[in-house]
Design goal:
Rossmann fold, about 250 residues, globular, alpha/beta, 8 helices, 7-stranded parallel sheet, 7 strands, single chain
């Protein structure tokens, strides 16, 4: 894609989403910062992206709501033009429970973020990507699909479904030069991990082949690569960004 492509990052108010938005901004993309709750956090992301020299649009929208997604895409198209790079990053609470304590609503909530939201966003942007015969779609998955973390089955199952979407869409949309890939981060501490026992983090880091934790920018830079012209022949792939923590 061109360096000034319109890039929509969902869940970009903080954490990995902020890092992704900033990496895209540094490469000259016009960045759409989507968020669902914290206007204060989103404003920080916007400020950082503008400081990097990017044009930025901030949009409040629940990406699990069909009407909200349609309204957001209309806003983006009115302000910048069609979405050319779509980063499905938004997430919500991630309960860790033994299976006996889960309800179906817990599973449905994860599926809403990791299946429903990408489907709604893809359906709202696909026609114009096809018309342009170009597009980049990047899913943010997780290493948990490979590791099968205990007491995390709702999250693991939904993140696994993202791999299915990635591979099916890469095949389906390839004829229009639309690439679809997934970035699977390891445990990279962000705001949601505040209060984690430092000994637990240290033990995780020691077990990695690289011997240290990753940073949000590691994910941001990987997404920016997949969004760029150097990745034009890469599609249907799942790229782990986890310091080698794979089987």
């Amino acid at each position: 894609m061109n360096s000034n492509s319109v890039a929509l990052v969902t869940g970009a108010s903080r954490g990995l989403g902020r890092a992704i938005a900033l990496s895209l901004a540094r490469r000259g993309h016009r960045v759409v910062v989507n968020y669902a709750h914290s206007t204060t956090d989103a404003a920080v992301t916007v400020e950082q992206c503008r400081a990097a020299g990017a044009e930025v649009l901030e949009v409040l929208a629940d990406v699990c709501d069909p009407a909200a997604v349609r309204t957001m895409i209309a806003q983006v198209e009115s302000h910048f033009g069609p979405v050319e790079v779509l980063v499905n990053n938004a997430t919500g609470p991630q309960p860790m429970l033994p299976l006996e304590d889960y309800t179906w609503a817990d599973f449905q909530n994860q599926l809403d973020f990791f299946v429903k939201a990408p489907v709604l966003l893809m359906q709202s942007t696909l026609a114009k990507m096809k018309r342009a015969r170009a597009g980049r779609v990047i899913m943010i998955g997780s290493e948990v699909v490979d590791l099968g973390n205990a007491n995390f089955s709702a999250y693991v199952a939904a993140k696994g479904a993202m791999i299915g979407l990635t591979r099916a869409w890469a095949t389906e949309f390839g004829p229009w030069n639309i690439t679809v890939n997934l970035v699977a981060p390891g445990w990279i501490p962000v705001e949601r991990h505040a209060g984690t026992n430092p000994n637990v983090l240290a033990a995780y880091a020691r077990a990695l082949p690289l011997g240290h934790l990753g940073a949000p920018v590691d994910v941001g830079e990987t997404v920016a690569f997949l969004a760029g012209s150097s990745a034009q022949f890469i599609t249907g792939q799942c790229l782990n960004v986890n310091g080698g923590n794979t089987f």
